[in-house]
Write a structure and sequence with these properties.
It is built from nine helices and no strands.
Length: 261
């Protein structure tokens, strides 16, 4: 005989789809029980739930867009700040290199003039034939043995520096160190001076014999030696030349030796 299967208890039986109630069924239900609970749930729950879900999705999308904009703004601002820092750093570096170049030019000029004057007594160099002695040191010069010698020494002792704006200048020969290029490390006494008795005697001679062009050059009027001295030891008018003594010396050398400037 053919076996009979109970389809009602068959777990593999495909369930029939439940159809939605018809309009007639809803009307009959409403006339009997009043407003349909289905309609209430649909009106108060289902529809608002869909609207709220859409609103939340829209808000979420807006939030993501705003967050994306913030991230893009932050990422675009970082290169700007980095570029600004790099630009500032480059400007500082370029300025430092330019200052170093100018400083080197000052040292080159000063070294050239000091070497020129170091071969003989500096006062004999400026006084030419007035000194009849043979080659000698400055302290043994006829000039120093005359009445002018004590006056010069008294003036020399008045030249003092202020360490706030006169760094690393030898108090004996008055040559700035410039990184030990023109002067070896400072020690007591003149033994470390490579250019002894050159700058100061030149300034003393120039003031008494040829100060006019230098007054015009620096826009000054030095009626007395004291006024000249006060200007020499004041804050440098040209910072890279370290002192007004050096500035005056360089200008005077260029004025009197134009042919080899």
């Amino acid at each position: 005989s053919t076996p009979v299967f109970n389809t009602s208890s068959n777990p593999f039986r495909r369930k029939e789809a439940v159809s939605a109630p018809s309009a007639a069924d809803l009307q009959a239900f409403t006339s009997k029980w009043g407003t349909s609970s289905v309609e209430l749930r649909t009106a108060s729950t289902s529809a608002p739930s869909l609207m709220e879900t859409g609103a939340k999705r829209k808000a979420s999308d807006v939030g993501r867009e705003e967050e994306s904009k913030k991230i893009k703004l932050q990422s675009s601002s970082k290169p700007a700040s980095v570029n600004t820092f790099q630009k500032t750093f480059n400007q500082i570096q370029q300025k430092s290199q330019a200052n170093a170049k100018l400083q080197s030019a000052v040292v080159d000029k000063l070294e050239k003039w000091l070497n020129l004057l170091s071969s003989e007594c500096i006062m004999c160099f400026w006084m030419k034939s007035q000194c009849k002695q043979k080659r000698h040191e400055f302290k043994k010069c006829q000039f120093m043995q005359s009445d002018l010698g004590p006056a010069y020494m008294e003036w020399k002792n008045r030249i003092q520096y202020n360490t706030r704006y006169h760094p690393k200048i030898c108090y004996i020969c008055h040559v700035p160190s410039f990184g030990d290029r023109l002067h070896s490390p400072f020690r007591s006494g003149p033994s470390s001076c490579n250019y002894l008795d050159i700058i100061l005697p030149t300034l003393y001679f120039a003031f008494h014999n040829d100060k006019g062009p230098l007054e015009s050059k620096f826009g000054m009027t030095w009626s007395t030696l004291d006024q000249f001295t006060q200007w020499l030891i004041a804050r440098p008018v040209r910072e890279k030349e370290k002192s007004n003594l050096v500035s005056f010396f360089l200008e005077y050398m260029e004025l009197t030796h134009e042919e080899i400037v």
